Amino acid sequence: MGSVLDDQQVATFHRDGYLVVEDFASKESCAALKAAAEEIVDKFRPPTRPSVFRTDEQTRVSDREFLQSGGGVSCFFEADAFGQDGKLRTEKALSINKIGHAMHDLHPEFERFTYTPELASVAADIGLADALALQSMYIFKQPHIGGEVGCHQDATFLYTDPITVTGFWFAIEDATLDNGCLWAAPGGHNTALRKLFKRAAQSDEAGTLFAELDPTPLPSPSELVPLEVPAGTLVVLHGLLPHWSDVNRSPKSRHAYSVHCISAAAEYPSWNWLQRPANMPLRALAA
């Protein structure tokens, strides 16, 4: 198909490092994806020691389930989901932080939502004509406990040489100031990559570490602009763009679906935390 983005939108993306495209996904497709995510959670049976996803760098959990999730569909709990007694504070459906990280290849509803000519065209329009779908996440941002995601650059976590990772973030529900919308640093992609998040060893058992590349601090929340968007909006994020989201302090969830793509021509190091099994090669967005 032809271009989805016009010249002004492409210029805006390259100037700001992000682009907001409202009405990209239909209400029906958002509702179907939300229902699919809720069904996954409903069928999820937590292990004796459930995996908790922590979003601050000091306490980020890199357990075996997390390191193996590149080729599966796993549920990760919110950090504040459990009380001091080790039991869930509320029902399971309201305690999951996210699902990751290969639903786009393993679940038919997520596959339909991801592999579309329209999304492939957007990727091509911004210069990623050979986009491979690397990772998917369904993020719940639960009422009252949906955790803060500290300011970060996606290339820290999904590094390629050269840097090509691009985020395609879909608002499945309205994203507002109250329920923890995205915030971004316009033009912030024109700076260096600060850190790399690496496997401590090339196994699923050895954990992870951060390697500092540039000591320059990332912007504080006061230096960012909010991206309040309605459901169905696509936000395209450059891999070097600093972005952040606050805690959800409201009674309303903020469901979102995120797909990260990389160039087929770039090198994807074996020390990246997210690795796919050898029998699950990455697929191109474009059919």
In short:
This protein has helices spanning 7-16, 27-43, 64-68, 103-106, 108-114, 117-125, 154-157; strands at residues 18-21, 73-77, 96-101, 131-139, 149-152, 166-171, 182-184, 195-199, 208-212, 225-227, 234-238, 243-245, 256-263, 283-284.
Overview of the structural elements:
The protein has a single domain, classed as Jelly Rolls (Sandwich), CATH 2.60.120.620. It is an alpha+beta fold and 287 residues long. Strands 1, 2, 3, 4, 6, 11, 13 and 14 form an eight-stranded antiparallel β-sheet that branches. The protein contains seven helices and 14 strands. The chain has helices at residues 7-16, 27-43, 64-68, 103-106, 108-114, 117-125, 154-157; strands at residues 18-21, 73-77, 96-101, 131-139, 149-152, 166-171, 182-184, 195-199, 208-212, 225-227, 234-238, 243-245, 256-263, 283-284. The chain is 20% helix and 24% strand.
Secondary structure layout plus pairing:
Layout: H1 7-16, E1 18-21, H2 27-43, H3 64-68, E2 73-77, E3 96-101, H4 103-106, H5 108-114, H6 117-125, E4 131-139, E5 149-152, H7 154-157, E6 166-171, E7 182-184, E8 195-199, E9 208-212, E10 225-227, E11 234-238, E12 243-245, E13 256-263, E14 283-284
Antiparallel strand pairs: 1-11, 2-3, 3-4, 4-13, 4-14, 5-12, 6-11, 6-13, 7-10, 7-12, 8-9
What coarse outline follows from CA principal-axis ratios? Answer: globular
The low-confidence runs, each spanning 5 or more residues with pLDDT under 50, are: 53-61
Structural class: alpha+beta
Strand runs, count: 14
The biggest beta sheet reads: 8 strands, antiparallel
The helix fraction, in percent, is: 10-25%
| Average pLDDT metric | 91
The CATH topology is Jelly Rolls
Please write the string of helix (H) and strand (E) elements: HEHHEEHHHEEHEEEEEEEEE
The fourth-level CATH homologous superfamily is: q2cbj1_9rhob like domain
**How many structural domains are formed by the residues?**
1
CATH architecture heading: Sandwich
State the name of the first-level CATH class: Mainly Beta
Distance between the termini: 11 Å
Strand content: 15-25%
Radius of gyration: 18 Å
Number of helices: 7
